[in-house]
Amino acid sequence: MNIRCPECKTRYRVDDEKISGKTVYARCARCQTRFAIKKNRHGQKPPCSDAPQTLFCNRCGQKSDRRFAVNGKPVCEKCYKTLSTRKREKPVSEYCMPRKSQNQKNSSNRNGSGGIFGMIGKMFSNDMAIDLGTANTLVYIRKKGIVLNEASVVALRTDARYEKSVIAVGCEAKEMMGKTPHNITAVRPMRDGVIADFETTGIMLQHFIRKARRGRNIFKPRMLIAIPSGITPVEKRAVREAAEQAGARSVSLIEEPMAAAIGADLPVADPICNMVVDIGGGTTEVATISLAGVVSGKSVKIAGDRMDDAIMRYIRKKYNFIIGERTAEFVKMTIGNACPDPRNPESMEVKGWNIISGEPKIFSVNALEIREAIGEQLDAIVEAVKIVLDRTPQELTANVIDRGILLTGGGALLKRLDRFLMEKSGLPVTVADDPLSTIVLGSGKAMISPDIFSRVVVS
Ligand SMILES: Nc1ncnc2c1ncn2[C@@H]1O[C@H](COP(=O)(O)OP(=O)(O)OP(=O)(O)O)[C@@H](O)[C@H]1O
């Protein structure tokens, strides 16, 4: 029989024989809600299963028989609408829109227009642009701006039966990182710019979307999601599926460097070359953009997270101290500097665990040490910039020499990174006004401009 979670509406198919009593309880694998499954009133089999009868769905026109039932009522095999057993006077073709070819279906899905219902939905839906980042997730809603900015973290509790339930999502969950008892884990479901844990990403996305919409709208939103430029088709499909499960009506994707360029108001559609370096938590995206397309791009999995790891390793090796991920990030944000002053470097006190004495202690680190720790990551970013410049046609490189590089993403906030990049590349470097929001702002702008939208979405 087919069942549906009352909370998140996820559908499951359950073998009738596994339901031993009249009522059994199940827990939804997605939202962890516990709910009752009742056996069909007439016994083990759904009603009418002995007498299959062809019915047509009023909503989608799908031909179904009464074998497919939920709670004893026949439902459509395709859209799960309850089927009426009343006899129809009209043939199904008079009730339904003509069936579309697969290509038409795909294109209407991408554009979010789906006949009359699509048009009504378009008028009332909260279309969303989402920067589903390794470190932070931001949501932009048409006409409202950025409505959500949360850490991409989920805290899960494991009970005595090894069942997991969500206890916090976002910044609240981030606060718990490194401070949890053994039965609670605060996890980051995104790693290196892609989905590392599909189920938890789905839960997180669903939570953020619900929070961003605040139940204002009954229509499902269309979503434009920013993705790293180097991700594989399988990783793209995972993003689409996670968004669809979280309630998207249609999902479109945009590459992060393109979104960043639009967000920073660069003339992406002109025959001028714009160079963008986006340093996020998991990936650094470098791209040259002209005529609304990426001329040359490179995505490297070296960004803020790798810098934090490098700081942790450095402190352990040099001082025999263990510090957590969050402390390493705090040190990077506070005294991290790509070009520190060697005569008067900033310093700060850090609390850590001494592995020799086995005691917690306070020690001091300075900006020169942190610079040494993250040197490898900074060099890798410069290398990516050089590769992209090398692959860009010379006519366009001339534009980059004049216009310079736009630095964005949270990593752009590392002190004097612009100066470091300028010295290494010999090109002018500008930091975006709000580096943490540039991608979601750009995605939002692309979403509301049909001309740009059709040119920048990726398949
Ligand atoms: N002031 C700062 N100095 C240095 N790094 C910073 C600063 N502020 C934020 N960051 C870093 O920026 C990163 C987060 O940036 P951002 O939100 O753009 O990434 P993301 O979009 O989540 O990741 P990705 O694009 O890789 O998926 C984190 O690694 C964070 O430590």
UniProtKB/TrEMBL annotation:
**Where is this chain compositionally biased, Low complexity type?**
99-111
Which ranges carry the Zinc finger/thioredoxin putative domain? 1-35
Q: Which GO terms describe its biological process?
A: cell morphogenesis; regulation of cell shape
Which terms does the record give in the GO molecular function aspect? ATP binding
> Mind listing the UniProt keywords for this protein, alphabetically?
ATP-binding, Cell shape, Cytoplasm, Nucleotide-binding
Query: Known CDD domains for this protein?
Result: ASKHA_NBD_MreB-like (cd10225)
Report residues binding ATP: T134, A135, N136, G281, G282, T283, E329, F330, V331, K332, G410, G411, A412, L413
Q: Does the keyword Nucleotide-binding apply?
A: yes
Q: Which InterPro entries match?
A: ATPase_NBD, MreB, MreB_MamK-like, Znf/thioredoxin_put
Residue ranges of region Disordered?
A: 91-112
Compartments where located: Cytoplasm
Cross-referenced Pfam families: MreB_Mbl, Zn_ribbon_4
Any one cellular component term from GO for this entry? Answer: cytoplasm
This chain's function reads: Forms membrane-associated dynamic filaments that are essential for cell shape determination. Acts by regulating cell wall synthesis and cell elongation, and thus cell shape. A feedback loop between cell geometry and MreB localization may maintain elongated cell shape by targeting cell wall growth to regions of negative cell wall curvature.
The subunit structure is: Forms polymers.
Q: Which PANTHER family does the protein's record reference? A: CELL SHAPE-DETERMINING PROTEIN MREB
Q: Which HAMAP family match?
A: MreB (MF_02207)
This one is known as: Cell shape-determining protein MreB
Organism annotation = Desulfonema ishimotonii
